[in-house]
Design brief:
single chain; 334 residues; alpha/beta; Spore Coat Polysaccharide Biosynthesis Protein SpsA, Chain A; 11 helices; 12 strands
Length: 334
């Protein structure tokens, strides 16, 4: 039996946010590899809560985590600290945990981050500034990476070459780039060739620069990128092929750029406590954060596969690449 009329009927719901951060958490137990999983989950979420602005919201996906993690996340949601909490009884994989949310959420910007990331003050503003200064951007990371400028960056290189704002520069903090390499266990291999530690491929416009290329462990994408993702599930717990099919290739198909901030605004904290992690966390200041107006996306209307062929098969082959790099400011002796 119903009496009266539902007061919500016909009411228009206005969007509160324009930036959503999705954090999948998988900590099945607190032993062995996951021994410090609760500590690092708290560091990740608390650093997010301290650094986001009022027009951003956090979604946490509890991907089959243990009771301790589940209790902590539920407390956050009950206290209103996170906007959305989704529970799965078992691990459905990182990509499947986030893509369905990314495809249906209303926010224009969507950050996908691992659960072992420590965010620094200013990360969200610096990422959004890249979108403001480069409306062509479709994916931006707050962590610069000197060796990924040739990975799924056909749109970026092709368009920036045409517009004349692509060149090698020495802009990034080398110590922090090496610290990231160390945090993922690649301290001896990532920058074995020091030329890309010392020189980064950049795009620049009106005095503002960004780094070409970025990784997956934390990055912000335009929602329209997810229009190009497969409709079927990945069914992979974690694999590079899932990142390729659901993030990299959709970004290329969308015709948008792949960039990173010049400064380092997040850390990968891994699974072993180190003194520097707590010190960096204590540096974070809770304060009012600037909100930016993000422009609509912009792109050169040439099919991505044509750009891919020109960039990867012609410009970056072993014969032409040295000439191109020299033209862009990376001298042959380097």
């Amino acid at each position: 039996m119903r009496v009266g009329s539902n007061p919500e009927k016909g009411k228009h719901i206005q969007d509160k946010f324009y930036h959503r951060i999705i954090v999948p958490i998988y900590v099945p137990h607190l032993n062995d590899y996951f021994k410090f999983g609760l500590n690092f989950t708290k560091l990740c979420i608390e650093s997010l809560l301290k650094t986001i602005h009022a027009k951003s919201a956090i979604t946490v996906v509890n991907n089959g985590s243990c009771r301790e993690i589940t209790t902590y996340l539920q407390e956050l949601y009950t206290k209103g600290k996170i906007d959305q909490l989704i529970h799965f009884k078992s691990n459905i994989g990182k990509i499947d945990a986030v893509i369905s949310i990314a495809k249906t959420t209303s926010e224009d910007l969507i950050t996908i981050t691992d659960g072992d990331v420590l965010f620094k003050d200013g990360w969200i503003q610096e990422v959004e500034k890249v979108f403001v200064n480069f409306p062509e951007a479709g994916m931006v990371s707050p962590v610069p990476h000197g060796t990924l400028f040739m990975t799924h960056t056909s749109n970026t290189i092709f368009d920036a070459l045409l517009k004349g704002n692509l060149k090698f520069q020495s802009l990034c903090d080398q110590e922090e780039m090496l610290q990231f390499a160390n945090s993922i266990g690649r301290q001896s291999s990532m920058y074995k060739n020091k030329q890309f530690l010392e020189n980064q491929l950049t795009v620049s416009r009106k005095g503002f620069s960004a780094i070409v290329g970025c990784g997956h462990f934390v990055s912000t994408l335009r929602k329209e990128v997810f229009k190009h993702t497969p409709n079927q599930k990945s069914k992979l717990a974690y694999a590079a092929s899932a990142d390729r099919d659901y993030i990299d290739q959709p970004l290329e198909k969308a015709g948008l750029w792949r960039l990173a901030t010049v400064g380092n605004y997040a850390y990968h904290i891994g699974n072993i406590p180190e003194n520097w992690i707590e010190k960096e966390f204590l540096k974070i200041q809770s304060s009012e954060k600037e909100e930016l107006k993000i422009p609509n996306s912009k792109r050169i209307q040439i099919p991505y596969f044509i750009k891919h062929f020109i960039v990867n098969r012609l410009l970056l082959n072993k014969f032409v690449r040295p000439v191109l790099f020299d033209f862009l400011g990376l001298k042959k002796e380097k």
